[in-house]
Amino acid sequence: EVQLVESGGGLVQPGGSLRLSCAASGFTFGISWMHWVRQAPGKGLVWVSRINSHGSTTSYADSVKGRFTISRDNAKNTLYLQMNSLRVEDTAVYYCATIAGPLDYWGQGTLVTVSS
Amino acid sequence: DIQMTQSPSSLSASVGDRVTITCQASQDIYNYLNWYQQKPGKAPKLLIYDASNLETGVPSRFSGSGSGTDFTFTISSLQPEDIATYYCQQYDNLPYTFGQGTKLEIK
Fold first, then answer.
1. Are A49 and A63 in contact (CB under 8 A)?
2. Cβ A93 vs Cβ A39: under 8 Å
3. Which of A47, A102, A107 sits opposite B43 (nearest CB)?
4. Which residues, numbered 32 to 51 in chain A, qualify as contacts with chain B under a Cβ-Cβ cut-off of 8 Å?
């Protein structure tokens, strides 16, 4: 059974940092390109970042460029998102996903709340 | 960035109705389009990939068509369990972009 399990969300003050993790199992994580997608409360889906299978190529949405860093540890089957200089507008559920139809898998999401 | 214009933003239909959602891309995306279903509190679920391919296990009442800039998603006979928000998403170019969503309700 394919599983993507996010963790690391929580409440943080503006300007703070969080590191999200996404533990993968049930598929060949090491050859899969991985993404982070977020969804603000009551809003639509927004792509955040992508990393290639080796971790050598990364891409970011303009809204998070320079503040967020995507990385992976293929030995641990885990994807990460380091989020620095957090803003109120970063408040959202963060999903990790493969976005690779037909091998399209999503985690259940982890909520990040940025508030003072 | 490629803009995805999805319509309508909300839709009310009866059980058994045929439902159609459209998605227009701001530039040619070939057939690099997904359709997702999202129920409250849940992750998106892929229904259609490459514009017209039905994901394994998805009921055949769901279908997709189109290429280039204009795409259509259809539910041939609406069922109560289809109540959800539906999103199109292009994966031709980064940043991947989603339509604004269509909230489907039962009349």
1. no
2. yes
3. A107
4. 35, 44-47, 50
